[in-house]
Amino acid sequence: MDMLPDVTVTAPDGSVLRLKDRLCPMVVYFYPKDDTTGCTREAQDFSTLAAAFTTAGVSVLGISRDTPAKHQKFIAKYDLAVALASDEDGSACEAFGTWVEKSMYGRTYMGIERSTFLFDREGRLAREWRKVKVAGHAEAVLEAARAL
Hints:
Elements: E1 8-10, E2 16-18, E3 26-30, H1 37-48, H2 50-55, E4 59-64, H3 68-78, E5 83-86, H4 91-96, E6 99-104, E7 107-112, E8 115-119, E9 125-129, H5 137-146
Parallel strand pairs: 3-4, 4-5
Antiparallel strand pairs: 1-2, 3-8, 6-7, 8-9
């Protein structure tokens, strides 16, 4: 993937967002599930740095396969400052290659690989992070975004 894929996702209010229509430069991060330990920490970390991303001229969008209603509850519960979107049909996950086979406790299943993508002003992929470890990740993404 060299360019921002032309996919749509659903905002918490139910409106449809076409990624190509969003402001670039942009961070798009995929995470497995709302209100789980790692995903909550990641959303909180990006929220803490939201003003710094805005100052750098970079928008941030978190995507999971949770419903818009679940996103609303997640945002309200943790007072999140980053935009979230739903990919209920999995088309964005497919386009970004984040829907992968995973395994836990000897069981294999399909799920979202925690991944982050940074796109420049023209929508070109500037950097990607796969199999993300949450600790320090939002700060590393901000540093890369500032370097654009």
